[in-house]
Each structure stands twice: as C-alpha cells, then as structure tokens.
Amino acid sequence: MNESILNKNIQEFITQNCGISVAKLALQKNPFPEVEWISILNQIEAKTKAKEKLPTWFSTENIIYPSRVSVEQTSSEKTAIYKASLISGKTLIDLTGGFGVDDYYFSKKFESITHCEINSDLSAIVKHNFDCLKVENCTFHNNDSTDVLSETNQNFDWIYIDPSRRNDAKGKVFMLRDCLPNVPELLDFYFEKANAVLIKTAPLLDISAGLSELKFVKNIHIVALENEVKELLFEIHNQYQGDITIKTANILKDTTETFEFVLDSENTFATFDLPQKFVYEPNAAIMKSGGFDQVSAVFNLDKLHKHSHLYTSEVLIDFPGRTFETEQVIPYSKNEMKTALANQQANVTTRNFPDTVENIRKKWKIKSGGNVYCFFTTDKNDNKIVLICRKIT
Predict the structure, then answer these.
(1) Count H helices, E strands: the chain?
(2) 150 and 287 share a domain?
(3) Which of 231, 254, 282, 289 has minimal Cβ neighbours within 10 Å of its Cβ?
(4) Which ranges of the sequence are coiled-coil (predicted)?
C-alpha cells in the first residue's frame, strides 16, 4: 500500500480531477514528483468509477483505491446492501475479501467479520479504508483462506465466498470447479467450520450447472441492478434437503422488484392466448431465472407462446418488468411492414423470432428511438407477428 498517496495536497488533487480523462492528465507534468504519476492517475480513475458505484467510499476522506479493474469487479453498494439483508448472525468469514464492499455491509448485520485476502496490498488497503469508514468489528488475514480456516479453532455462522475464474478456464463453459477456490471440492471442508455458506457467482453461470455441482442448496438469489443481472447467490445450509426457492431482485432507483418461486414445481402451468390490451416483458432477473410458467400462474397472465416469454392481459396489473399498451398487432409480412413501420422510428425487440434486431432495422429502414415500441415475436399459433406498443412503465 502506497501511503504517500495520502498526502493532503495529493488527496485534494485527486478529488479535484475526478471525472477528467486520465489519458489527458497523463500528458501533463507530475506536480508531485515524490510519488509515481501512474499511482496518482490510478487513484483518480478508480475514484471516478466509485462516484456512482461506491458513493460511501467516494465521499469518505483518505480512501485508498486499488486498480480501476478491481473497483469495476467489486460489488456495488446497492447489491452489497441487498446481500446483507439476506443473512445475519454473530460471525461471518469472507474467504475472498477483495475490496471489502460486501464486508462493510455484512459488518452492520454481524457481531464480527473476518476478511481473508491473499493480495497483501489489497488487504492493507481494505484495513486502512475500514479505519476511515469507522468499521471496528472486522479482522484481517493476508493469507490463503483455506489455510486460515485450517488453522483456526473458531466456528462461524456463515462463510461467504466469491470464487474467481482461473485464467486457464477462458473460453470454457463456466463451471464452479473452474474457479478458485474450487467450492464444490472444498464444500465438505467448509461445513466443518460453518453450517451455512453463501456463494456469489458471475451472472453468466448457468443455474442448472451450479446446482449440478453443489448440494444442500436452499435458495438461489438472482440480483439485477437497473435491469442488468449482476450476480447469482447460492445459499447453502448443511444437510438441507427441502425445496429450492428461486428469489429474484431487480434493484431500481426508488424500488426493488422481487419475485420468487419453488424450482421444479410440478403443479405450475402457463396459459396461452393471442395479444390482448396489455403486454408485459419480465425484468432481467426473472428472465435469468427461467420461471416463465410461474410468471403466468402467479400473475394470472397469458403467454404469447411457449418460447416467446412475453405475457398479455386485458386488465392492467402491477408487474416486475416493463409494461406496454398494445396499439396494433400485425402479421410479419412485406405489405404490413411497409404500411406500418418501414422508414419509421421505433424501439425494436425480438423474442422467439428468426431474425435479429440489426437485420430488421436494416431491412425495413427503422430508425432507433422514439416513443413506439415494437416486439417481433411468435404467437401461440406459431405465426410471426409484430406488436406495436406504447410503453406504460
């Protein structure tokens, strides 16, 4: 950790230059020759990234940042707050502590937090930052987390882990066993130290693939931020054998859209119909969950087609996703397209349709944007149709 970066004048310079292009600043002469220019520029770039993602860190004096990439890869405060709402207890050990954003919020729910980070600089940075943030119930281990667990006699209420993909796993199908630490291989060892484990994974992990490698899964949380899936959380309780519940959360500016269902429920069926007055598109967290029949059953909505994942009703309902009013439904044909959409401006989405948005725009000269929303999709009779809609929410 480069403590010279904490010089008052350097800190003021970093704050004053947040938001300014680092490439532009790099051409200037270093006003603080006693500190490497690249270190100062890194702080400016990382702090700029933190302004929206980590406002608590951004607004706290004397915070030291790791690389911009580390800031990009860490949890946002909003997703960390959500995670901390899911679990609680007396003790938690984070086996892959990183920049410590999750642990900052876990520290508000647990009596004590243990932060393990094998990178010595990063471990020192987090310890320094937690002093600035006035976190007093966290201990730090600059060591391999498996060694920390092996050497301690302490048992924990929760183990939290965010395994990272090994470099040699690039291009492969993403599996947990391709990550470090190898959670499936170490799970029995973890249960010697805690009865509950929360595993964070990247959003591209296939849920069924994760379940094939794990045991005792009780809940799977799918967390999206502003309709972009950010992480999957596998909540595991030792010896649990009951139903697995999928819980989705789409964190928006003023609210959080939630939806949950029991995985593999045998009594859940979707109903189907042609487009009605209102059309609904599930948020990204629900789309990731695969609970498409459950959406139809829970909200009493008809699906347009088994594989279209668009829903419809005559009566407007409150829905976790986007809601549209249907203004026109046309068959996807040359004459209909020429009359209704060619050379027009519209937002184009495809759902269960044989062509891409790019090709549709090019073929019919449809400009992007505007207040018209078009869904190119397939109805329950396997007909290719276009829904021309007005967005409600």
Answers:
(1) 15, 19
(2) no
(3) 254
(4) none
The domain containing residue 9 runs over which residues?
Answer: 3-69
Helix/strand/coil for 63: coil
pLDDT of residue 172: 61
Contact between 31 and 44 under an 8 Å Cβ cutoff? The reply is: no
Alpha-carbon span 348 to 345, nearest angstrom: 9
Closest CA to 95 of 68, 120, 75, 114: 114
| Cis omega (within 30 of 0) for bond into 181 | yes
Place of tokens 């000269």: 365
Domain end call among 242, 262, 282: 262
For 155-209, write each residue's pLDDT tens digit.
999 999 999 887 665 656 679 999 999 999 999 999 999 999 999 999 999 999 9
Same domain, 233 and 173: yes
Q: Tell me the per-residue pLDDT of 325-380, one tens digit each, with 9 for 90 and over.
A: 999 999 999 999 999 999 999 999 999 999 999 999 999 999 999 999 999 999 99
| The domain boundary residue, chosen from 230, 262, 294 | 262
| Contact call for residues 35 and 6 (beta carbons, < 8 A) | no
Q: Please report where in the chains the tokens 């603080």 appear, as a residue.
A: 32
The reported pTM is 0.94
**Averaged pLDDT of the chain:** 95
Same-domain status, 194 and 285: no
